[in-house]
Amino acid sequence: MLGESSIWTEKYRPRNFSEVKGQKDVVSKVKAFVTQKNMPHLMFSGPAGVGKTTISLVIAHEMFGDSWHENFLELNASDERGIDIIRNKVKDFARTRAIGDVPFKIIYLDECDALTSEAQQALRRTMENYTQTCRFILSCNYSSKIIDPIQSRCAIFRFKPLGKEHLMHILEHIEKEEKITINDAAKKALIEICEGDVRRLENILQSCTAMSKTVDEDLVYSLASVARPKEVKRVMELALENKFIEARNELLNVMTNYGLSGLDVIRQVQKEITELKIDGRKQMQLIEKCGEAEFRISEGSDEFLQLEAFLASVALAGQK
Fold this sequence. Notes:
Blueprint lengths: L6 H5 L12 H12 L5 E5 L6 H13 L3 H4 E5 L6 H12 L10 E6 L6 H13 L4 E7 L7 H4 L2 E5 L5 H15 L2 E2 L1 H11 L3 H14 L2 E2 L1 H8 L4 H12 L3 H15 L3 H11 L7 H19 L4 H16 L2
Parallel strand pairs: 1-4, 1-5, 2-3, 3-4, 6-7
Helix pairs in contact: 2-3, 5-6, 9-10, 9-11, 10-11, 12-13, 12-14, 12-16, 14-15, 14-16, 15-16
C-alpha cells in the first residue's frame, strides 16, 4: 500500500486489488463497484501513507485497462487550491465523454481538504452538473474540513494505519527484491517509527540502504531522526529520581544528537509515560502536562523552557 514520493514508492506500488495489503474492508467494497463498472463519488479519508492514492490508481487500472491515462485525471488540491482550478481544469475534463465501455471518467483530487471554501462550493456544483460523464474520488486527511454538501454526495471510506503484520510483509518483500539484509531489531524499529505510514517506512528504508546493504537498528534511528525509546525513558527516569539537572542535560544531549525539535521530543515522551513506574493518576497528570507543553510550543513559546517545565512536573510526580 504505497502513496507518492520515493523511487521505491512507485516501484512497489500495487497494480491490482490482489496486491494491496491492509484496508481489507475498503478494498472489498470498492472492488464491487469496479466489477459493476459503476460507482458513486468516493471520499477517502485517513492519515498519510496508508494507500488512498494507491487504491484510486488501482480503480483506474482495473476499470479502464490500457486506456486509463485518457480517462483519469489526478490533481493535488494543496498545490492548486483556488476556485480557478475547479472552473478550468476540472470542468474541462469532466464535460467530455469517456473513452471505452465505461460511461464515465474519474477525477482524483488529492488533499482536497486544502481547497478553499469557494473552491469547494464550485466543486459541489461541478459534481452535480457532470454526474453522467464523470465520477470524483476525493482524498483528504480530515473529512471534517470538507463541506457537508460534498460529503453527502460521496460514499465515505475511512482508512486506518496499516497493522504490524502488513508492514512486516512489505518489509520482507522489499528485503527479498532489493537483496538487502534487515535485522529483526531494525524491522521492529521501522514499524514503531512509521506508525502505519508505509510511505515513511519506505523512504527511511531507502535512505538506510543508500548507506549500507545491511540495515541495523542504529542506522534506522540515525536516519529517521528519532531518539531511541530507551534514551527518552532514561531522561524521564532521571527526573523521577529527582536528578533534575542530570535529566535536563541528558535531554539536551538527545535533542542535539538526533536533531530533534521540542515537538518531536514531546510526542516521543508521551509514548513513554505509560511505561513509567508511577501510579495511573500521576501518569494521567503527566499526559495532561504533555498536551499543555505541546500547545505552548506550537503557539511559539520557547521549546527548551517548556521541556524543562515538563521535566520539573515529572520530578514532582516522583516525590512521595
